[in-house]
Amino acid sequence: MTSHPTGDELSQPTPPTEESPSSYIPGRLLHRSFTHHPASVLSAKASTLFLSDGRSILDACGGAAVATIGHGHPSVLDAISRQAQDVSYVHTQAFTTPAAEDLANLLLEGQPGGLDMAFFVGSGSEAVEAAMKLARQWHFERGETQRVHFVARQQGYHGNTMASMSLSSNVARKIPYQGFSYPHVTHVSPPFAYRYQRDAESEEDFTNRLVQEVEDEFLRIGTDKVIAFVGETVIGATAGCVTPPKGYWAGVQAVCQKYGILLILDEIMCGSGRCGAPFAFLQEDVQPDIVTVAKGLGGGYAPIAGVLMNRKVTDVIRNGSGAFVHGHTYQAHPLSCATALEVQKVIRRENLISQCAQMGKLLEELLRREIGGLKSVGDIRGRGLFWAVEFVQDKNTKAPFDPKIGFGVKVQQDAFERGVAIYPGAGTIDGRRGDHVLLAPPFNITRGELETVVEVLRESIMSQEALHG
Ligand SMILES: *Cc1c(COP(=O)(O)O)cnc(C)c1O
């Protein structure tokens, strides 16, 4: 039976038990888990987090690929303070601010990939919802009101709100919510070579098979029923930094264009410089119609996300009804926009995207050299400063560990005890089997710090192999 708190318990928190860290005092905040209490962070500087129990943690995953310039950057702190003094909030029905205007102009300077306008919201899930509605409205304005369907991919993540969750195939996060989904979504195979490319298949064969599957799915649904194809340019947390085979995005785009279907690229995790280019799609031969960005956009200094759209999209709405039928109280929030604007200026001023590309090469080299030979390391993959290590029980057969072990989480916990934060993932292969850990440090992480990260990762993997191998 669940016991409900009495008035006494409300005012007298129970003392910490042996399982909980000494710094933890049970309070009113609902954490992700009722049993696992997160470490309390009192301050942070650059790539290091300082905990309330005196320990410091080197953050090798930027939270969840969020921190791009590290913590406590003086010019961002100044920008936040200046904006707070200038104007904290206005409603976008009647007002705009230089911060929001400047952020859109800076991000879309030179119209990268033909991207024409930006719409700012507060989180990645909100951005995906907005992208879905924008794509639907685009067809609606063109009189194609029968289009209601989205095609996404297995092993992709697009958010946790109801429609964005429907696009996601992250099985564990959907289990309690069966029947809640937006019904018109189907999923095709992920462009995930380590698991899904057949032995006899060349990279080109693999690409062709995947693109054919997309076209077959459009034909099965009815090509005049599909609104958009949605995918992460480089797959993030769900499968672990999976880069597509050569020609994949160009092939998918050609099929979309053939049937008047829009292409939405979700760059919430892989974009904003993370892969070593301003947008991940710039490293692929593709011009998306709509792009979502979030995590790295504000670098963790403010909650902000963006929906960026091509001229083809804005023209139809501009010349049609003239308004995007969507909005939020906090859209284009001045504080969030001013913060993200300065984060993006820092990235340009300090040349951090090319630094990300360079440090990424070093990280790859270190990973391949230091852990590539370990017996549980099946695959090392990624781009820029966005890398994942997939674990296997048997390297030859690629057989994964028993999911009950939670090998990726064990490695993450072990590394945390050694002072390095990495991001674990489970269900790497199909939502149930497979383990990986993800590395996504700030772009200005130092060479020495990267060496420490890989050294600790090596120790943690070896110690977990000894326990579970
Ligand atoms: C994190 C993420 C989202 C969701 O963003 P939230 O800010 O957590 O709502 C959507 N798509 C991708 C690819 C992500 O990595």
From TrEMBL:
For molecular function, the Gene Ontology terms on record are: pyridoxal phosphate binding; transaminase activity
GO CC, sorted alphabetically, is:
cytosol
The record's listing under Gene3D superfamilies reads: Aspartate Aminotransferase, domain 1, Type I PLP-dependent aspartate aminotransferase-like (Major domain)
PANTHER family, alphabetized: AMINOTRANSFERASE, AMINOTRANSFERASE CLASS-III
Q: Which cofactor does it need?
A: pyridoxal 5'-phosphate
Pfam families from the UniProt entry: Aminotran_3
Query: What domain of life is recorded for the organism?
Result: Eukaryota
- The molecule here is called Acetylornithine aminotransferase
Using the UniProt annotation, give all residue ranges assigned to the region (Disordered): 1-25
Record's keyword terms, sorted: Aminotransferase, Pyridoxal phosphate, Transferase
Write out the similarity annotation.
Answer: Belongs to the class-III pyridoxal-phosphate-dependent aminotransferase family.
